[in-house]
Design brief:
The complex is a heterodimer. By secondary structure, chain A is an alpha+beta fold. Chain A contains 17 helices and 16 strands. Chain B is an alpha+beta fold. Chain B has a domain of 39 residues: Histone, subunit A, CATH 1.10.20. In chain B, strands 2-3 form a two-stranded antiparallel sheet. In chain B, helix 1 crosses helix 2. Chain B is flat.
Chain lengths: 476, 95
């Protein structure tokens, strides 16, 4: 009945050391206003000077999404008043952005893929931060963030569901991190998103009136905020009402969106070219030099993982989400030959521990070499997969590598048939009732016997071997 | 093109300028004169001229990405009307 139309504007902070127009530091978490210099404060008489690295990062992004990188781009002033914008205008790009039309391919849940258009990406400066609490009725302003370089990436209204919007946002997040142009830290606001949302009757050509959802800073919230907003708009229209073009804020606590301001007046930004800045030139030579530094991108890496390592699309997708994870995986399989087992350990236990402690894979106390070493011990039957979990946890807790832990904790599997046989005999003798039932056809009891033997041996027997011995002894 | 009273009031509001009611006709006249000048220029044939973003025929010089500024918060904040905990204080901007 209704079709949802979504376009996203993603603001990603570029990982430069200094600001886009000044030599002040961009490091996160400094004391308020200690990294806001005269240029950032917009004091009279200052001149912005453009950061080369910010330009090169934008070019790199443009090349990665197959976009046209403008040979000449121009900075413009976007005029509005807010205390966290001391100049009364934000230096941005308007008519001639540095990155033109490009594309990004997203994967959908049903395994198909979809090409989403990128309208443009432009360079601009971030604003400061307003703190509205605890200042006896006043607002506190911290301008450390003012002037931090941003790349605003504007998509076409190509997405048709909240899920597609999330897939696009995740893919873009992965891409900017692959490129090394942003740390993508969403908690610190390095990667945030505004969503333009509208609905229209299925089959209708023209778009419905859209609302803009501001500053959504997590993948989970983008989906929820859009879902809520779509439902609100449909209810409104079906109830005989009309959607008003406005900016709305998503409140994750109440799970609702609410009106921030009507956009009619705020829209009048009166852009004009910034006379303080000359046009920015990107030569063909610069582009070529940057093209040569492009890393293998997520799609190419995923395809290679599927092709070279016979991984399925889902596993290859997960393992290539970040460059660090892909590198880790490749290091592991350099030192062990069981690709599937390596993939499972990385996506399973390792990811679980990382999530639990909020660590990135490059901070893992279990290095790729250590994990490979452990996997080799599973492969040569020194330990079972179950015991490996215990070994892994010990490695995580810094107790040494797999070999050291297996030795110090005495976790080596019992492979001596005689020893296991003795235990199997013992268990059979102690459970005559169960033996009867098993022989009578109650196959489920096999698990009971294997379990008993494993318990006796504290998990150190090889389950396959136990199974075989039991069958032999019970003449099954 | 000539601007009326409402136009002047809107422009003043967007620029957050307080203007005197009695000066409005004068502003309207002066601003209209500027627009008329632009209209005159519009009459010139510029088919062979490529648009310029800046009057000087030069390209932006770029700066190395290096931190060159040091913390001068105390000095900057001597001219701020009100500060607290290192923050600049302004009238509350949210309901």
């Amino acid at each position: 009945m209704w079709e949802t139309v979504i376009g996203l504007e993603i603001h990603t902070q570029l990982a430069t050391k200094s600001k886009i127009f000044s030599g002040a530091s961009t490091a996160y978490g400094a004391e308020p206003n200690t990294q806001a210099c005269a240029v950032d404060l917009g004091l009279p008489g200052v001149l912005p000077v453009l950061n080369q690295q910010a330009v090169l990062m934008a070019v790199k992004f443009g090349l990665a999404i197959d976009a046209e990188v403008a040979p000449i781009s121009v900075f413009a002033r976007k005029n509005y008043f807010y205390p966290d914008l001391p100049k009364g205008y934000q230096i941005s790009q308007f008519e001639l952005p540095i990155v033109g039309k490009g594309t990004l391919t997203i994967e959908l849940e049903d395994g198909s893929s979809k090409v989403v258009g990128v309208t443009r990406a432009h360079l601009e400066e971030d604003a400061g931060k307003s703190l509205h609490e605890d200042f006896h009725g006043m607002t506190g302003v911290d301008l450390n963030r003012a002037g931090t370089p941003l790349l605003e990436i504007v998509s076409e209204p190509d997405m048709r569901s909240a899920k597609e919007a999330v897939a696009y946002m995740r893919k873009m997040h992965s891409l900017v991190r692959y490129l090394g142009i942003s740390d993508g830290n969403m908690q610190e606001g390095s990667f945030r998103c505004d969503a333009n949302v509208s609905v229209r009757p299925k089959g209708q050509e023209e778009f419905g009136t859209r609302t803009e959802l501001k500053n959504i800073n997590s993948f989970r919230f983008v989906e929820r905020a859009i879902d809520f907003e779509v439902e609100r708009q449909i209810d409104l229209i079906e109830g005989g009402g009309k959607v008003t073009q406005e900016t709305r804020l998503y409140d994750p606590n109440k799970h609702e969106t609410r009106s921030m301001r009507s956009k009619e007046e705020a829209m009048d930004y009166r852009y004009f070219p910034d006379p303080d800045l000359l046009p920015v030139e990107v030569t063909a030579e610069t582009k070529e030099n940057i093209r040569r530094t492009l890393p293998e991108l997520p799609d190419a890496k995923k395809a290679r993982f599927m092709e070279s390592f016979a991984l399925n699309a889902e596993d290859a997708g997960i393992l290539t989400t970040s460059r660090d994870m892909a590198d880790y995986f490749e290091q592991v399989i350099k030192a062990t030959d069981d690709i599937k087992l390596s993939a499972n350990w990385i996506m399973g236990d390792l990811s679980g521990f990382l999530n639990k402690e909020g660590k990135e894979i490059n901070e893992s106390p279990v290095t790729a070499e250590m994990l490979a070493g452990m996997i080799n011990r599973i492969k040569d039957n020194t330990i079972s997969g179950k015991i490996a979990k215990e070994v892994f946890e010990a490695m995580w807790n810094g107790e040494g590598d797999a070999d050291a832990i297996i030795k110090s904790k005495g976790l080596k599997q019992i492979t001596d048939t005689g020893a296991i046989e003795a235990i199997v005999d013992e268990i059979i003798a102690a459970n005559p009732g169960q033996v009867e039932q098993l022989k009578a056809g109650k196959d489920k009891l096999m698990g009971f016997f294997v379990g008993q033997v494993m318990k006796q041996t504290q998990g150190k027997a090889n389950p396959g071997q136990v199974n075989q011995l039991l069958k032999q002894k019970l003449e099954l | 093109m000539s601007l009326d009273k409402q136009d002047v009031e809107k422009i003043a509001h967007l620029a957050r300028l307080a203007i005197d009611e009695k000066d409005i006709p004068n502003y309207a006249q002066n601003l209209s004169n500027i627009l008329e000048l632009v209209e005159q220029m519009d009459a010139v044939n510029t088919d062979d001229v490529s648009p310029m973003a800046h009057p000087t025929d030069a390209m932006q010089r770029l700066r190395e990405d290096e931190v060159t500024e040091t913390n001068q918060r105390e000095q900057f904040q001597t001219v701020a009307p009100q500060v607290e905990d290192g923050l600049y204080l302004v009238p509350k901007v949210i309901e």
